[in-house]
Design goal:
Largest sheet: 6 strands, mixed
Number of domains: 2
Mean pLDDT: 95
CATH architecture of the largest domain: 3-Layer(aba) Sandwich
Strand content: 25-35%
Helix content: 25-40%
CATH superfamily of the largest domain: L-asparaginase, N-terminal domain
Strand order of the largest sheet: 4-1-5-6-7-8
Length: about 280
């Protein structure tokens, strides 16, 4: 078996420079080669330049998918920064739905060689990549193997920085690549001006709306009108809860009735990241 390593960058690949920590080629590649079982083959694709995950988006997701598709018989380890790991996890999980691939995401909170979590995470990723019983997109981190479709980064510093929220098994998407669409996550916070939401939606093709609890929002006639007109103009709006778990339930509260009569889609228990990817990949 040959493992495909897609090395995109992130903290795991950083080294100390006069300007501070920065990605450096060669670190991850050497660490994986040293940790592989004897006789195990490795094929490596290293991004140039290496990326901070803050710069990973639709174009990079398409590149990941192209590389995965072009190596159909290989399990994949993708090294990636943690800041946008949840978006990439959702993107690959949904785009690869219905395909029996094994993709292991791996990152760290501390770089390799600094006595932190990187070495353990990489060893776990290698072990998972070599396990023929595993399929799907997963994150190897802090001694856990997490489903990557509903990742939540709940801590900005701890080694155990992620948990996963169970998602519905996705149907194969309408498309498997990320076309140019203007999409965003908008939070309907208390007192948000309807004009601000309208201005944002005027610049977007669709949006994920983070609303309250089990599915409520403010009863502001101007805001309800803005959402209704946006849906009427063909913009897809998909609602998710501000809460990590539990999701939305249509009809649970009268205060939420307006959002559904506007034609906003129910994202249920989807994370904001998963809902955003749903807008990208489905009609």
């Amino acid at each position: 078996m040959t493992i495909l390593l897609l090395h995109s960058g992130g903290t795991i690949a950083m080294a100390q420079t006069p300007a501070g920590l920065a990605p450096q080629a060669g670190i991850v590649e050497a660490a994986i080669k040293a940790a592989l079982p004897e006789g195990q083959d490795l094929r490596t694709v290293v991004f140039d330049p290496l990326l901070d995950s803050a710069d990973v988006g639709p174009a990079e997701w398409n590149r990941f998918l192209d590389l995965i598709d072009s190596h159909p018989d290989m399990p994949v380890i993708l090294t990636h920064g943690t800041d946008t790991m949840a978006y990439t996890g959702a993107a690959l999980s949904q785009a690869l739905a219905g395909h029996s691939r094994r993709v292991i995401l791996c990152g760290s909170m501390v770089p390799l060689g600094f006595g932190g979590d990187a070495e353990g995470n990489l060893a776990q990723a290698i072990h998972a990549a070599l396990d023929p019983t595993l399929t799907g997109v997963m994150l190897a981190l802090a001694g856990k193997l997490l489903a990557a479709d509903g990742l939540v980064k709940h801590d900005s510093h701890a080694h155990d920085a992620f948990r996963t929220v169970g998602q519905q098994i996705p149907h194969p998407p309408t498309r498997r690549r990320f076309e140019t669409r203007r999409l965003a996550v908008l939070t309907l916070s208390p007192g948000v001006p309807a004009a601000m939401v309208e201005a944002a939606l005027n610049e977007l093709d669709g949006a994920v709306l983070r609303i309250f609890g089990a599915g409520t929002m403010m009863s502001d006639p101007a805001l309800i009108d803005v959402l209704s007109r946006a849906v009427g103009a063909g913009k897809r709006l998909r609602a998710v809860s501000q809460c990590e778990t539990g999701g939305l339930v249509i009809g649970a509260y009268a205060a939420g009735a307006a959002i559904w009569t506007c034609g906003v889609e129910n994202g249920g228990a989807e994370t904001p990241e998963a809902a955003l990817i749903r807008l990208w990949l489905t009609d």
